[in-house]
Structure formats: structure tokens, C-alpha cells
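Much of what follows relies on a compact textual record of a protein's fold. A complete example follows; check for yourself that the lines match position by position.
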Amino acid sequence: MAETKEKKGGGKPAAKSAESAGKSKGKGQQKGDGVQVQAEHAGAGLPVPPPRLKKQYEATIRDRLKTQFGFKNIHQVPTVTKIVVNCGVGEAVKNAKVLDTVVSELGIITGQRPVRRKAKKSIANFGLREGQEIGASVTLRGARMWEFLDRLITVAIPRVRDFRGLPTRGFDGRGNYTFGVKEQMIFPEINYDMVDKVHGMDITFVTTTDRDDVAIALLRQLGIPFKGDDRAAANKQLAAGS
């Protein structure tokens, strides 16, 4: 009888401990305790679809460029090899926390961890020392590059205030194009309420061609709006109507 009582008595604390564990686990899933449980992605286990803009380039844009410039080989047709997003933070010399915020925002925008850039030499007038972190940059390639380019063209650039097209003077003479963004808030990934300070960035498209005329034709076909494109299209429509 004593053994049975001990077994029964020993089983009760175990049941209570299981119940308390279940209660604590349930509390842990609540937001009030500061524990966030991430739900499983609906597309987990499914094959990743190719980028939409890359499919469009391979299906239509590549053939148009081949016909326009008379390329005999399809490998001569230019394409975008990488996109570099660079952000200089001069205030990081006095306040290092500003750079942490910029690095976090660049990671959210591009989906890739940025690299912190250091000063190559000391400048006494600016209070800058060699090796001090003063910026961040991200180099995108492959599918992540095409996805970022698609979001930039279709979502981010149309959100620029008083936008009239990108300038064409950003080409370097070797087929690469760079333009500046004044505000990081044009990207929908950035929450306006969480922004401490507005900062800009430079975005560079690196292509496989060494000619600016071929590079600008490639970027136009991809959908990047340059200054004067709307005027040229309107003049063409007027000429066709007359």
C-alpha cells in the first residue's frame, strides 16, 4: 500500500510540472513576454521561381538588342553582371551608432548583409583616421540582383518626389552607370516611423559591354526611365499620327 501511495504521490508532481511547462510554453509564444515565434513559410519546400525580370530579358530583350546592334553571336549581347549599392556616412566619425543604422537599413533594402567600408587614409581637417569605418556597401549578383533591379524599377523609382527621369550623364564611358538616391524611404521595405535620419545612397549598374550607347539601350529595355524618354515617345507618336 505504501508503494502504491508513493507511486500515486510521485505521479502528481509530474502532471503539475507538465501543466506548468505547457502554460509557460504558451506564455512564451505571446508577444507580451517579448518572444516572437516565426510561422513556417507557406512556400517552404517548393522550388524557387526564377526572377521575373531575368525571364523577360532572356525571352524578349536579348533578341531586341541583338537585332538593334547587329550582333552575330548571342553572347555578344550585353547584360547586367552586378549592382553595387554604396552609402557613405560622414557622421560615423563622431557617432558610430549612425553607421549601425545605415547598415541595418541597407540589409533590409537589398536582402544581403552589407560590408563596412574603412577610410584608406587619415584626414586631419575632417577628424578622420585611417581604418575608421565611414560607410557601407552591398554587391548584388545573380537572382538577388535581378530581384532588386525589378523592385527598384517598378516600385522604388516611381516613389521619388517630382521624378522626371534619371540623368544620362552617369555613364563612365565603359558601359557602367551610376545614379544617386537622396532618400532611403523610397524603398517600401523601410518603415517611415522607424527612420532616425534620412540618408542617400549611390547605385551602380555594371554591364558586360564597354560602350555607353549599348549600355543605355540595355537599361532602357529593362525599364529604367531616363530624362527625355517620355518626350521622345510623345514626338514619335505625333509623327506617326501625322
In short: The helical segments are 2-28, 52-69, 96-110, 142-156, 212-222, 229-241. Residues 4-38 have pLDDT under 50 and may be disordered. The radius of gyration is 27 Å. The longest strand covers residues 80-88.
